[in-house]
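Duplicate of #3305? Posting structure anyway:
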């Protein structure tokens, strides 16, 4: 981050401010971890901070410290809009374009405020007065740790803030398996553990807290798994009817896409999930090795993300979407 930007932000934060902190729509562990970490840091420094999520977050993140304070725009539009209008500063974390916040986009576009972006995705938009954007990081939480350090206040990172940061690093690194996991990532994690972050407890809260219906849904997803061995590709489908039959709740499909990469020889996988309310097929892509799913998602499915993890959507039917996907895959060299 530029020294002059750090100094400007230090000056802005030298006196108490009204601050709104926003994650992307359908927030994951990194989005919630980074926003809540920043929330606790700013609150410790006498700022009036509010996390406003575009929509609700999954139940498996509800244990995060401060999660009960999160406002949800989708269910409280009037109050959330007022908070945004009154904010002196707005932090946008783990996204870099307003369209990633759904309905909130219309509000953010017309705000007369100062934006600060902290994000690790490619091709950031230029709405922020101050931007900390770096695709080499595996998580926005790791960047929030650095951001607090840049401000000269690393000593304020306590167990609560550290728990939020650790959660985002753990989830966005694929439990430290993804390529952007560096030695510095582990050094930060080591410091957080030394602060008292419960590194053996958090994975259980995140990954080993499934309902019976979620496990049944996972079973159906694996039954639907298709493999295209000649193209080193696999994919999973889940229809709206299948989601409904297993009492789907937000977060139940989290991580299922990764099973497609566990097959020997597979380098590219996807999961296609029908959402009849939004009239789309939501898609997650994963890869290992050199195949860039960010570019694939941007080019073919109105999405984007990272080199090895990205998302997209289709307004075609499930059958048409899969046919389109397979046709494209047949042209790829993996």
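Output from current build:
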């Amino acid at each position: 981050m530029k020294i002059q930007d750090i100094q400007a932000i230090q000056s802005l934060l030298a006196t108490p401010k009204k601050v709104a902190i926003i994650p992307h729509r359908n927030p994951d562990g990194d989005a919630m971890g980074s926003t809540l970490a920043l929330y606790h840091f700013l609150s410790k420094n006498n700022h009036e901070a509010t996390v406003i999520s575009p929509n609700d977050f999954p139940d498996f993140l509800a244990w995060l410290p401060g999660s009960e304070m999160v406002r949800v725009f989708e269910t409280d539009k009037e109050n959330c809009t007022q908070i945004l209008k009154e904010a002196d500063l707005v932090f946008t974390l783990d996204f870099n374009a307003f369209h990633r916040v759904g309905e909130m986009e219309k509000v953010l576009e017309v705000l007369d405020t100062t934006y600060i972006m902290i994000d690790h995705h490619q091709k950031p938009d230029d709405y922020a007065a101050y931007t900390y954007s770096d695709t080499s990081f595996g998580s926005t939480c790791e960047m929030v740790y650095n951001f607090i350090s840049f401000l000269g206040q690393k000593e304020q990172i306590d167990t609560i803030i550290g728990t939020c940061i650790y959660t985002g690093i753990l989830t966005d690194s694929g439990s430290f398996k993804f390529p952007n996991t560096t030695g510095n990532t582990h050094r930060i994690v080591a410091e957080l553990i030394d602060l008292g972050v419960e590194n053996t407890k958090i994975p259980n809260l995140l990954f080993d807290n499934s309902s019976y219906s979620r496990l049944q849904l996972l079973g159906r997803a694996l039954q639907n798994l298709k493999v295209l061995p000649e193209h080193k590709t696999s994919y999973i489908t889940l229809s709206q009817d299948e989601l409904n039959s297993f009492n789907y709740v937000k977060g139940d499909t989290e991580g299922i896409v990764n099973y497609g990469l566990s097959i020997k020889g597979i380098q590219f996988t996807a999961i296609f999930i029908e959402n009849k309310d939004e009239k789309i097929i939501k898609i997650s892509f994963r890869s290992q090795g050199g195949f860039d799913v960010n570019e694939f998602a941007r080019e073919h499915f109105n999405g984007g993300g990272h080199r090895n993890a990205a998302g997209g959507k289709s307004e075609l039917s499930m059958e048409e979407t899969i046919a389109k996907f397979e046709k494209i895959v047949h042209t790829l060299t993996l």
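Confirmed duplicate; merging threads. The first strand starts at residue 18 and ends at 22. The chain has two domains: 3-206, 212-329.
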